[in-house]
Amino acid sequence: MFIFYFFIFFMIWFLIETLFIIILFVLLCPFFTRKTKQFWSMSIYAVLMGCMLFFTFGGLRFCSLLNLTNLFYTHINFVLFGFPIVFILDNLTCFFCFLTLFLAFICMLVVWNSPNYQNLSFFILLWILEFSLFHTFTSLNLLSFYVFFEISLVPMILFIFFWGSRQRKVHATYVFFFYTVFGSFFLLVGLLYLYLITNTLLISNLFYLKLPYNFQLFLWIFFFIGFGVKVPLVPLHTWLPEAHVEAPTIGSIILAGLLLKIGTFGMIRFIFPYLNFASLTFQPLIFSVSIVSIYHASLIALRQFDLKKIIAYSSIAHMGFVILGLFSFSIYGFLGSLFIMFSHGIVASALFFLIGIIYDRYKSKNLFDYSGLATIMPIFIFFLFFFILSNLSFPGTSNFVGEFVTLIGLSETNFYVSLLTTLSIIFTSVYSIWIFNRISFGVYNLQLIGFSDLNKLEFYICFILFCFTLFLGLNPNLFFFVIDYIPFLYIIK
Questions:
Q1: How far apart are the first and last CA of the chain?
Q2: pLDDT tens, residue order, the chain (493 aa)
Q3: 78: burial class by Cβ within 10 Å (0-12, 13-18, 19+)?
């Protein structure tokens, strides 16, 4: 009961502080200059993110001390209108929470000097997005997971619609909206049906229920379609390239780094623990769909001219790797998939940021508008070269570790699937090297002569992402050490 009162008190304090800061900013806004507005907007966002960090980590840790819970498992539960709501912080969620905070920090640095984003509405939307993602990853209840995920889609839609780069942003907004609603509908139907049968939506309760096989098959189809749209998998993937192309740089960073991970995270948290027999039944189908997704995305990327679309299709191929590792029902496949998710969140964000840098200078995402940038922007080319190597899983980079471990897990389950997956890396290397060669070398465009290399802020952002990628690639033991404490719930019971 004390924990419940503590939670209520903290939430009231949190809301009051947030409203106070917002009202204060609105009242003083007419007296601010542009630079002052920039400073205060950043400060308000930093305060809100700090409050969210304290609530998620500090509040849950305080409750863990009261309950004397394990170091790697902390939770808080309360009843809202007679319905139990549970938030959990364990080894699995801590990495996704860290990734959320890290990319939020990167986004804040990206928009620091951009006048288009220096307003309160933008930072409030960004805070709502990060807040909802935090609670999506920490939810142990299917209802709260669903609600917070749907909330996170609203700021992303507004980012694309109001801060998109071109006229097709309206079309991209509609495509993104209808695809996500389509997936959410199947997820909601499965959620309601599950509650009617079991009278609970808590994963801790569902894990100990022996659900009938036919019921598992029916529920698995709805859940997998709902999460598959968000991964995304072929043929439910067409919304992602459209959204990436029209989204602003921070929209692409969050979309590639976080939103794509919610689909696979939902499978880990809500499908494997209690729909395991159905998952084993559909394993050949999932293997086929994932391999088709990898090869389809890689071949389509070879024919694209838009830089963002190429990276978007590359993300689809990497998420296909993740699905293969998860459905291998192997410890190595599971660990490798988690590592790919974490690494891809950093590498893809870095690539979208680099593309955003040249777009801000030249206002073009067409690959053939750029050539000879190695002469004009050597520092930019160095970082581009490194992250492209990481994207194609070059040894020593973080993606290599994840894909190598995933392939080990796949080889234990099905050697031929592992072989086909390994061969797909060739296509990834082809379009990755093609991008780098086309941008870096050749006779440079005369209109690019006035280009400046990375400024200090852009260099610092790239350097931070560079250090994280290199550290994960050369020292993955820290990641596997913490993840190793996660109970492996995904083997067939």
A1: 35
A2: 434 444 444 455 445 545 545 554 554 454 444 455 555 555 555 555 555 555 555 544 444 444 434 434 444 554 554 556 666 777 777 778 778 888 888 887 888 777 666 666 777 788 788 878 888 888 877 888 888 888 888 888 888 877 776 667 777 788 888 888 888 888 888 888 888 888 777 776 776 777 778 888 888 888 888 888 888 888 888 888 888 778 888 888 888 888 888 888 888 888 877 787 888 888 888 898 889 888 888 888 888 888 888 888 888 888 888 899 888 888 888 888 888 888 888 998 899 999 888 888 887 787 877 877 888 888 888 999 999 988 888 888 888 888 888 888 888 888 888 888 888 888 888 888 888 888 888 766 656 666 677 888 888 889 999 988 888 888 887 676 555 544 444 444 4
A3: middle
Can you give the residue ranges of every domain in the chain?
296-493
Residue 394 CB partners (closer than 8 Å, separation 6+): 400
3-state secondary structure 223-287: HHHHHHHHCCCCCCCCHHHHHHHHCCHHHHHHHHHHHHHHHHHHHHHHHCCCCHHHHHHCHHHHH
Q: What is the pTM of this model?
A: 0.83
